[in-house]
Amino acid sequence: MSETLPGRDTEEPRPAALRRVVAASFIGNFVEWFDYAVYGYLAATIALVFFPETSPTAGLLATFGVFAISFIIRPVGGVFWGHFGDKVGRRTALSLSILIMSVSTFAIALLPGYERIGLAAPVLLLLVRLVQGFSAAGEYAGAASFLFEYAPKSRRGVYTSVVPASTATGLLFGSVLVTVLTATLSDDQMAAWGWRLPFLLAAPLGLIGRYIRTKLEDTPEFRALEQEEARTRTPLKETFLHNKRAILVGLGVACLNAVGFYTLLTYMPTYLSSELQLDETASFLSTTVALCGYIGSVFLMGRLSDRFGRPAVLAAAGIVFALLSVPMFLLVGTAGLVGIMLLQLGLGVMLTMNDGTLPSYLAELFPTRVRYSGFAFSFNLANALFGGTAPFVATFLIHSSGSNLAPAWYLAAAGLVAALSISLARGISPRDPVRTGKPSQTATPVDTTA
């Protein structure tokens, strides 16, 4: 039975095929960011295991330093996976990246600590994190491009918002799991073996995600390029020669996602417990509430971007963060647990204005021939410069300035940069699904499980 429905201008995938595409994108992205969540939430424990001979602050900085260094390779990974995805196919790139990520994440659970092998322990941790960063570089952009090119044109915003939703679900699962572990295990048990348990889950989850992806055909737009013999042989060269402005805009807009995501949804439990002296379990509980609000509202923002346009929603997000970050952090420092939960929830919803719109916006900035390359490079460069460093920068700024408001000023600056970047995008119109110089043809979406 055909997996497509006839439309006025093109054929659209049947609901069953779309559901499988959504499931494949969701679970892969979930696995990738579950690891990042667990590492961030267990930062204090990991510091004890791998950096025991330093002060608590130095150990925490070292742990977040390893977290940040793993992002340095993200732009390199973005170039590799973007080139691979534009030349060979989105599905093949995604199937390979999730396999590499799952194996490297599982390997963290098996690493010996400092007490057993000394300095070799943090070195091995860094090497594994570099492999993870390389793999993750292809996931977000690939999953978003995959969904964008399968989704009906009028609903691309809401469909691609599945990507940030799955990312936040990975964080949520990590937060819940770490909350349960910290509430049921002693500090000694957590340091001895408890911290390893979340990383062990990567292997089975990753294999499930890879299996689902291998059962799907590549996107209609990519196969249309194949039919027209219009795939570029040099995606990387074409990306940088003809899409410089789009890359710059993408980098600026993704800046708010990078800083906001890793500050509010990864670093925040450490901030609440280490800087504001909130109970560790309560810190994770508050972040869990914020993640639930984030997941619920991110689809709404994707839908609003379909209705009112991506630039309007993204510009509003930047302005809101520029104006409200510092006042809301001031309130967090004086509120009780319920107040902190409500404020974190508000910050999470604010972030979805950017994150729910960003995937479809970045996908529209680049033509199909180099969509994966342009998206992956600009997004991963932003995350390397501003995302992976956010916990480290926040911790450093707090202890160098003596002010707990330092992360808020960092967020406000990122919001301003994102808002200004939208103004630079004038004249860069959304690209047609297939830009080949030949009459556009539409490939029939095929699901090999049919």
From TrEMBL:
GO molecular function, a single term: symporter activity
Pfam families: MFS_1
Transmembrane segments: 21-51, 57-81, 93-111, 117-137, 158-181, 193-212, 246-269, 281-300, 312-330, 336-353, 374-397, 409-428
Membrane topology, record value: Multi-pass membrane protein
GO CC terms, sorted: plasma membrane
Main subcellular location of this protein, as a coarse class: membrane
Range of residues in the leader sequence: none
Keyword Transport on entry: yes
Keywords attached to this entry: Cell membrane, Membrane, Symport, Transmembrane, Transmembrane helix, Transport
Highest taxon of source: Bacteria
UniProt-listed InterPro entries: H+-coupled_symporters, MFS, MFS_dom, MFS_trans_sf
Major facilitator superfamily (MFS) profile domain ranges (all copies): 21-431
Subcellular location, record wording: Cell membrane
Function of the protein: May be a proton symporter involved in the uptake of osmolytes such as proline and glycine betaine.
Family membership noted in the UniProt record: Belongs to the major facilitator superfamily. Metabolite:H+ Symporter (MHS) family (TC 2.A.1.6) family.
Protein name: Putative proline/betaine transporter
